[in-house]
Every structure is written in C-alpha cells, then in structure tokens.
Amino acid sequence: MKKIPLTAVLLALVLAPMPLAAYTVYLKDGAKLIAQVAPEIRGELAIITLQNGTQTSLAASEIDIERTREANQRDLGSALVLEGGEFTEQPQSAEPQREERLSDIVRQSKARTQTGSGATGRVRTVAPATSTSANLLDFRRSPYRNLDVAGEIQGVFRGQGVEQTRLYEGTAAGRVLVDLTTDSEAAVFRALKVAATALVHLETAFPGTVEAFELVLTTSSRSRAGEFLLGSEDAKRLARGDLEVSTFFVDYVRF
After folding, report:
1. Sequence-separated (6 or more) residues with CB below 8 Å from residue 4
2. Can you give the pTM of this predicted structure?
3. Which of 29, 72, 130, 240 has the most beta carbons within 10 angstroms of its beta carbon?
4. What are the helix and strand counts (H, E) for the chain?
C-alpha cells in the first residue's frame, strides 16, 4: 500500500467539500480567494471554482492550511480534523482573525516617517505619470492592440486567480493600462503582486515590449481603490519579495 504523507492528508481534510454558500481560501502571501466550494486537490494543484463559476488553479503549497481551516470552521461552527491519528471536533473560534486595513497601513507608515524610523532609501524606477495620466480611471481608452502580449498578460492573471482584468493602451509608449476589479484589501495586495509577476514574465516572453503597467484598481461599483505606475525594477523586487506589497502601496498609491 502506498504511504500518503500526513501533510497531504491534512490538506485533503481541510479542503474537503462543505455545505457553504462560499468558501474562503487563504494563501500564504496574505491574499484570499472566495470560491463556491472548497478547492479540489489534484496532485500538487488546487483547482478552485470562483464565485462567477470560473475555474482556476494554483499550487496547493501556496494555501495557508491553518488559516483556511479556521476561517471556514467559524462559518460552520465546528469541523472534524485529524489530530494524533484520530478525528476530533474543533469548537467555533472565539474571535475572527483581524485583517490589516489599508487605512491602518497608511497611518502606521506616516507615523514611522514622522519619527524618522523605517526609512527605506528606495528610488522610483519609472518616472511619475504625466499630467495626462493623473486620473487613469477617466483616461480615454482604446483596447490594447498587441494581442499576443495581451494574451500573455491575461494568462498570468488568470493563472493566479485574478479574473476581471481589462487591458488598454497606456498613456505613453511601452506602457499597458491594466484595469482590475478589487473588492477587498487582500484583493488589492494580490493584484499588485500578480501585476509584478506578469511584468517580470513579459521581459522574458516579449523583451523590450512593455516597460511599465499603469494600474487602475476599482471596486465592482467603480469606486477608486488606487492607481499605480509599476516599473520593471519595482516589479522584480515585488515578485522576489524584496519589497513588501503594503510598502509599495503606501509609497506609490494615487487616488
């Protein structure tokens, strides 16, 4: 009989289908995905059906197993988990885990600046947007014309579970205006991280084609969630984890 690693058993138990109207999957990078049901584990992949019915996949190792279990356990009241080789019932958590809010991050950053601590010495690697792109949400748009590049960008976003991505010609040569729907703070951070990954990927797939993304983040009701100019060097640092997404947000966000 083939021996199954205990971690695989735990993951299967945590992600076992449950009768929920929605299932929250937390990732180790702090992001979360809202699915119709728990993910289906196929080998090393987790297949996730999003609320709009679209299926996406990611490495099962990216899932924060404990936080996902706790979050969905709160919705159920209790859950069966494997501990010490036996199934035991876990009671409902007393309090939900508090998520860091963007307003808190901005306030903490300002406090560090005022006290003179936390200086990073970063240099913006792409010149600030010109006056024509000061309000990207209202910028007159035309669809991005390079279909091969557009398909590559969409593929990266969809592969990371970001479905509502619209691409337009940027305000300057070498830029792509990327319009993203982000209905939560976690979605904002994840969109920035995935955008960085996509821009780095393009340097290999289509070298010299795209120098920067002009990112427009809005809610489903088109309320502003932030605008950013993401250049190559900052994209690499975000993708590697050398630059925190929350720090990038505070330093470069425009509303």
Report:
1. none
2. 0.54
3. 72
4. 7, 11
Chain segment 118-153, per-residue pLDDT in tens: 434 343 434 343 333 457 777 888 999 999 999 999
Q: How far apart are CA 52 and CA 11, in angstroms?
A: 24
Contacts (Cβ under 8 Å, ≥6 apart) of 61: 44
Q: What residue spans of 88-208 are helical by DSSP H?
A: 102-115, 147-159, 185-205
Residues 162-182 as b or e (16 or more Cβ within 10 Å = b): bebbebbbbbeeebbbbbbbb
Structure-block tokens of residue 138: 């209202």
Would you state the CATH architecture of domain 6-90?
Roll (2.30)
| Residue 94 Cα distances to 75, 98, 201, angstroms | 12, 12, 43
Burial classification of residue 184, based on how many CB atoms lie within 10 Å of its CB (0-12 exposed, 13-18 middle, 19 or more buried): middle
Distance of CA 222 to the CA centre of its chain: 19
